[in-house]
């Protein structure tokens, strides 16, 4: 999704970072921020302030992965959340001809897997849970997907 902007935190007591510097990079992120603020089970949340180093399998270099969301729940669980369209969470299907689009999709998927493996390892070391959320996850949580 190409829609992004500054998010206005309505409940700054629940936000763990600087509430004046919150940006959403998709409408899905914006809706999850709203959900986190309104959900009484969410004690604290923060966006893009947890940074995990990872080695990307596409170039062998160390990069920094800014996790989309960190949520601390009333039940004691802490989640690191990546928000992606479902199509980016599964391996691309190889077409008859290897097009530039397919190669880009393969590289993006490989980069995502590198990030997610590092994030999962980091989360487990902290006693946290790493998850990738997509449109079906949001629907199951009752988060409405808006188009504007």
Strand order, largest beta sheet = 3-6-7-8
CATH topology call: Trna Endonuclease, Chain: A, domain 1
CATH C-level name = Alpha Beta
Topology pattern, helix = H, strand = E: EEHEEEEEHEH
Uncertain stretches of 5 or more adjacent residues:
none
**Proportion of residues in extended strands:** 15-25%
Separation, N- and C-terminal Cα atoms: 11 Å
Number of domains: 1
Oligomeric form: single chain
* Biggest pleated-sheet summary: 4 strands, mixed
Q: Report the strand count.
A: 8
Question: What key phrases describe this protein's structure?
Answer:
148 residues; two-stranded antiparallel ribbon; Trna Endonuclease, Chain: A, domain 1; alpha+beta
Verbal overview:
The protein has three helices and eight strands, in the order ββαβββββαβα. The protein has helices spanning 27-38, 100-126, 135-140; strands at 5-6, 23-24, 42-47, 51-55, 62-66, 69-73, 78-83, 129-133. The strands form three sheets. Strands 3-6-7-8 form a four-stranded mixed beta sheet. It has a two-stranded antiparallel sheet with strand order 1-2. A two-stranded antiparallel sheet has the order 4-5. A hairpin with a 6-residue loop joins β4 (51-55) and β5 (62-66). The protein is globular and about 50 Å long. The model has no long low-confidence stretch (mean pLDDT 92).
């Amino acid at each position: 999704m190409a829609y992004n902007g500054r998010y206005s935190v309505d409940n700054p007591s629940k936000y763990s970072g600087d509430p004046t510097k919150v940006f959403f990079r998709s409408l899905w992120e914006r809706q999850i921020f709203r959900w986190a603020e309104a959900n009484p089970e969410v004690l604290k949340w923060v966006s893009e302030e947890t940074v995990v180093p990872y080695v990307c399998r596409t170039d062998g270099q160390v990069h920094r992965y800014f996790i989309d969301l960190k949520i601390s729940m009333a039940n004691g669980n802490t989640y690191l959340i990546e928000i992606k369209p479902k199509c980016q969470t599964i391996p691309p299907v190889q077409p008859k001809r290897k097009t530039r689009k397919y190669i880009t999709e393969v590289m993006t998927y490989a980069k995502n897997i590198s990030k997610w493996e590092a994030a999962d390892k980091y989360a487990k070391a902290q006693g946290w849970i790493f998850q990738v959320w997509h449109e079906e996850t949001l629907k199951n949580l009752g988060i409405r997907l808006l188009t504007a």
